[in-house]
Design goal:
It contains 4 helices and 8 strands; from the N terminus they run H-H-E-E-H-E-H-E-E-E-E-E. With 198 residues, it is α+β, with helices and mostly antiparallel strands.
């Protein structure tokens, strides 16, 4: 059965990529009336949708999982997403400063890309090379100058710093990825490629 995490990843990527395909301003999609995800059961009734129970619900879930898997395959083939370690990485090809990148990724149900392994770094690098633009990573300098951590406060156990970096010594709090996959500490007000993870 499709896990909530998998569905969350696909929905987030879809929301991030949707403006790429829209003409003009993307339309606002209202929530489905009566849908309560925190208390969802097969017996819940959603106005406008037929009620399903038991095996029918499992069949629908399997069909949905198959369609999502195919959609993920199409997006991989088109170079719209990359995957690593159970994570999906995606970009809309636009640039923003660090805070706007964090907000955009959160808005679509993900977070700013933060590699925790060489494979994840390579997955993000795919977009940096494709668009030939540096990208911010979800890593910031801690209160201790020269020491960096993930945005949730977790210690960075994998790093790919460029030679002689980090060098900002408290003046450059954000981290960007160069087009060779190495990292540099940087001020947070520059526009960099938006890359999110789900």
């Amino acid at each position: 059965m499709l896990s909530p995490q998998s569905l969350h990843k696909i929905l987030g990527v879809t929301l991030l990529l949707l403006p790429c395909y829209a003409q003009g301003k993307p339309a606002h999609v209202p929530p489905v009336p009566g849908f309560r995800p925190e208390r969802w059961t097969a017996q819940d009734y959603v106005p406008g949708f037929q009620s399903f129970a038991g095996n029918e619900m499992e069949d629908i879930a399997l069909q949905l999982e198959d369609r999502i898997s195919k959609l993920e395959g199409v997006l991989l083939l088109q170079g719209k997403i990359t995957t690593s370690g159970g994570k999906i990485f995606s970009t809309n090809g636009k640039t923003a400063d660090f805070q706007a990148t964090v907000e955009k990724c959160k808005e679509v149900g993900g977070c700013i890309a933060a590699p925790r392994s060489p494979d994840e770094n390579t997955a993000i690098l795919y977009f940096v090379k494709q668009f030939n633009k540096y990208a911010y990573l979800g890593i910031k300098e801690s209160l201790v100058p020269g020491k960096f951590q993930f945005l949730n406060g977790a210690e960075v156990s994998y790093a790919n710093w460029y030679s002689s970096e980090p060098s900002g010594k408290g003046e450059e709090e954000c981290v960007e990825m160069y087009t060779d996959g190495t990292w540099n500490d940087k001020k947070c007000n520059q526009n960099r490629l938006i890359v999110c993870q789900f």
